[in-house]
Amino acid sequence: MIFGILMLIVAFFFDPEIVDAVSFLRNNMLTTLMSIVTSVILMFLILFAYFLLLKDSKKRHLLIISVVVTYIITVALKLIIMRERPDAALLNFSGYSFPSSHAAVAFSSFAIMNREFSGFKMVFFIIAFVIAFSRIYFGAHYASDLIAGGFLGYGIGYIILNRKAVIKNIKKIFK
How far from 34 is each of 28, 91, 117, 133, CA to CA, in Å? Predict the structure, then answer.
């Protein structure tokens, strides 16, 4: 957790330089691959595959709740913070930058899938990471947008999975 906060702080200071560094990786083949990875259609297909992998209807509901709550919170935060997108975009992106909804949703679903299929943790992490990375690759986000979105999404997924323990701990605090 502390490492993540430090990453976020460092990223804020070096966001433009990180976007510039990632832009040097751009080439035709990687741009084609990243355009597939960053598409909303692929995100829905991945979420649908996760939904099908989860055999228990309760777990499926938790996945849907986690993704929807995460998305709503990121959209609300974008409207509150109103951070402009980087200037180095390969494509035109509308809306605001902070936090990344793609990263948040990807890592929210990662939290759910990791709990259910811990043996495939790295597969789910790599999928979430590549989705997030595709956003900085195209210049749609700064690194801090991705880090914040990733932590926000994972945190929401974790809270939804552990809601009973979280509520119990909150009640202890306010006693």
Answer: 10, 12, 26, 9
